[in-house]
Specification:
The structure holds 2 protein chains of 2 kinds. By secondary structure, chain A is mainly α. Chain A is built from 10 helices and no strands. Classes of the chains: A mainly alpha, B alpha/beta. Chain A: This is Transport permease protein.
């Protein structure tokens, strides 16, 4: 097994050894959907049902939580406690560390996405995405945009607390302003513009769209934006990789 | 005669961080197969020097050659051939010992000495234990094992016995000696003078980023002016000891005396003769040698008085 896969495998195992992160990653989103469902599921008007709108959105939100908390904050912790420094005088190259954590994050994210989807199917008659290949591709593009983005942003933090604070800020901002939880149409015009600056907005457009309406080829603009974010973030994350918090 | 092979060559090395000069004009060499100690108080520049040798930090001036390589420019090759035990680092808290050993072994091409190390360090019983559940001594063993999996030609140990109890420290020394006997050259920093004395073949003493002394512990100790005789007695008086020839000073604590002298043998004879004539009893008479600790204090004093 290559070093990347070995490290990814170990990191995934260790993730499951931490009960608290298992709860926040897998059960919290399901609980939120259940909560929103009990509030809104009967009152949504328009062509799409509650589940068709909210479950793809929360799968998008899960990309954000995975990238900022499962990856970013954890690596900031590794930086602070010297885990990364231990790698520094070995032949292990930084890109392999980033790649291993990306693989681990992808596995964990897909488990959480499947859980949400199954929950939606059982509770709210959600159906499989209309263009399933497109949805999968959209997920991959979103991951490639968000993981390096979060890895870069959290690497700027001085310590784990600061990384967690940055992560919470980004998460909350996107949670409320990207259309994931509240319909953008109900927001003031200014905030509607703000939402378009947030990368999660494009992820949600892409996921909702391919799930309910059209194949990914119809979403060239969103795909373009996300690929752009991805390219810049991959460059920044590997260029400014830091082994320790000095 | 076999020519001496230099594993490390440091020539006029300096390192500045902004205004502070952490390392000043440091020059020394490390020979193949020795345990080389770098000692000095906290903040003396030991870790900085080590990190320059490991290629983690760039030197501000001077030349450094490690295993014939330039540490920064040829870092990847260097990393394949050196092992490093950092000060106060951890591995993932929830990683088990055997997982860490497997992971680190996968970083290196070729066979590793994983199984030999497990046996040598007695790690068998801890293989399924998570790192967070190990005591300090066991954590040190594990990180030592991770640093030596690939049988590095050169092993850097930064304060390896920090926080260990005396027993664990002695065990660690034995392991370090075994690693040397298996062919590694070892560079170790410490601020425990006893460690330098008992473990190292040669010792460099660093203070304020400067090299103050470099020699074998034995020869360094021969320079110490603090040799003395020690004994216990209820009857001997302080003043009578001070009046003996060659005596520099006398320290008294309860019934224990330390008599410092220019000529220990002569002073010892005088003490015995005096006590014999006066019918006084002496107990636990010993010739004592100053430790590196004393030497260190001596250097610091010299520094302060100029």
């Amino acid at each position: 097994m290559s070093t990347v896969m070995k490290l990814a495998h170990l990191e995934t195992k260790m993730f499951f050894r931490d009960r608290l992160s298992v709860f926040w990653t897998f059960l919290f989103p399901v609980a939120m959907i259940w909560l929103f469902g009990s509030m809104f599921s009967g009152s949504i008007t328009g062509p799409f049902s509650f589940a068709e709108l909210f479950i793809p959105s929360w799968i998008g939100v899960n990309i954000v939580t995975t990238s900022f908390f499962t990856l970013g904050t954890v690596l900031a912790g590794y930086r602070e406690t010297g885990v990364l420094r231990r790698y520094q005088s070995t032949p292990l190259q930084p890109w392999k560390i980033l790649a291993a954590h990306t693989v681990q994050g992808t596995v964990i994210f897909f488990i959480s996405a499947v859980l949400l989807m199954v929950f939606g199917m059982m509770m709210y008659d959600l159906e499989l995405p209309l263009y399933i290949g497109s949805t999968l591709l959209a997920l991959v593009i979103s991951i490639l945009a968000f993981f390096p983005f979060a890895l870069f942003v959290t690497s700027l933090a001085k310590n784990t607390q600061a990384a967690a604070a940055i992560s919470s800020l980004f998460l909350n901002l996107m949670l409320f302003l990207s259309g994931a939880t509240f319909p953008l149409e109900l927001m003031p015009t200014v905030l509607q513009y703000v939402s378009k600056v947030l990368p999660l907005y494009y992820v949600i457009q892409l996921l909702r769209g391919t799930w309910n309406e059209a194949p990914i080829t119809e979403y060239g603009f969103e795909v373009g934006i996300l690929i752009g974010i991805s390219a810049v973030s991959i460059f920044l994350a590997s260029r400014f990789f830091r082994w320790d918090d000095r | 005669m076999i020519p001496i092979e230099h594993v490390i060559k440091v020539n006029h090395l300096s390192k500045t961080f902004g205004e502070t000069q952490a390392v000043k004009n440091l020059s020394f060499t490390v020979e193949k197969g020795e345990i080389f100690g770098i000692i000095g108080p906290n903040g003396a520049g030991k870790t900085t020097t080590l990190e320059i040798l490991e290629g983690i930090q760039k030197a501000s001036g001077g030349e450094v050659e490690v295993l014939g390589l330039h540490p920064v420019k040829q870092l990847r090759e260097l990393n394949n051939r050196i092992g490093v035990q950092f000060q106060a680092t951890s591995i993932q808290k929830k990683m088990k010992v055997k997982e860490a050993m497997d992971l680190f072994a996968s970083f290196y091409k070729g066979k590793t000495q994983k199984n030999e190390l497990i046996e040598m360090l007695g790690l068998q019983e801890k293989l399924d234990v998570r790192f967070e559940d190990l005591s300090g001594g066991w954590k040190q063993r594990v990180t030592l094992a991770l640093a030596t999996l690939h049988q590095p030609e050169l092993l850097f140990l930064d304060e390896p016995s920090m926080g260990l109890d005396p027993h664990a420290r002695r065990e660690l020394w034995a392991m370090i000696r075994t690693l040397r006997d298996k062919g590694s050259t070892i560079v170790v920093t410490t601020h425990y003078m006893e460690e330098a004395e008992k473990l190292c073949d040669r010792v460099a003493m660093i203070y304020s980023g400067e090299l103050k002394a470099l020699n074998t512990p034995n020869e360094l100790l021969d320079d110490v002016s603090t040799h003395y005789v020690r004994f216990e007695s209820e009857e001997v008086s302080y003043d009578s000891l001070l009046s003996l020839g060659d005596v520099i000073k006398v320290e008294k604590e309860e019934h224990e005396f330390k008599v410092f002298s220019e000529n220990l043998q002569q002073t010892a004879y005088q003490i015995f003769k005096y006590c014999d004539e006066e019918g006084m009893e002496l107990r636990n008479f010993k010739f004592e040698r100053g430790s590196l600790d004393d030497l260190f204090v001596q250097y610091l004093k010299k520094e302060k008085t100029g």
